[in-house]
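Tutorial handout. Part one gives the primary structure; part two gives the three-dimensional structure as tokens.
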Amino acid sequence: MRRREFLGLLGGVSAWPLAARAQTDRVHRIGLMGSLPLESTERFRKKLAQLGYIEGKNLIIEYRYARGNDGLYPAFASELVAMPVELIVTLGTPAAFAAKRATAKIPIVLGTIGDVIHTGLVADLAHPEGNITGFVALNADLEEKRLELLREVLPGLARVAVLGNSANPLNKVNLDTVRRTADKLSITVDVFEIARSEEVARALDAITAAHPGAVIVAADTLLMAERKQIADALGEARIPAIYPFHEYAEAGGFIIYGANISNLFERSADYVYRILNGESPHNLPVQQATSFEIIINMKAAAKLGLTLPPTVLTRADQVIE
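Part two.
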């Protein structure tokens, strides 16, 4: 560890209020709802441990994973409220809405979510109303950038397919952005929607049969749970696709462009710490992602028979050989 980092760490620890640190001797119980365990979950736990909340010692986390079935979230939220937990952390839009409908009193921390303004989840970022705060990946706004990036990689792109989740409130917002951008670029948009994980294979078969010039995979945690199936099917069909989360790179996805949700989820641990120590969600502003990453999978590009423009490669944050 470099000296500056070490001093920074010491400074952060010494700045914690003594009374707040003393409260970690009490066992706290929080809920966590998401599609499935991810790297972001582990980073969240480690960050909480650094802040003094150690799972199994003074912290109990009630995990509720939908594993591709967003319809489970309302029951999960009701269970957590009935316990009750002191706080609910959510990953993704369907989980966030389920938590909001279940309680107006228990604090809700959005570990990461695609959008809060356009979906109506929160109206005021600086002073979020009610019991909700957290971190936003800005995926609704990024759909425009993803389509523009595809056109840069594929100059002749005339038709694009969107794979989305109709059960996700963010889906309509994303589609509106894609269609508006596609009109400007003279690109035709075909939409293929699913509502449950078992429908993904059927949608992929339909996309393969239509064979569009490219595919935009929507920012959605249910789809992310099926990322290997999606990346494999589109790769085998030789259809270029752009994805929203870096987890798709590990599954063999071609291009990834978006905020790093693991970073956002890790940052949410600080809000959990502050709320457990008495702060109100209303006083914690909803924070939006400020940095975004482009990941290029050259192995996938070779399989697609594509040569990427130097302008894209030089902007890439990571190139997977």
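Part three, for discussion. The chain has two domains: 3-138+260-288, 139-258+293-320. The chain is about 45% helix and 20% strand.
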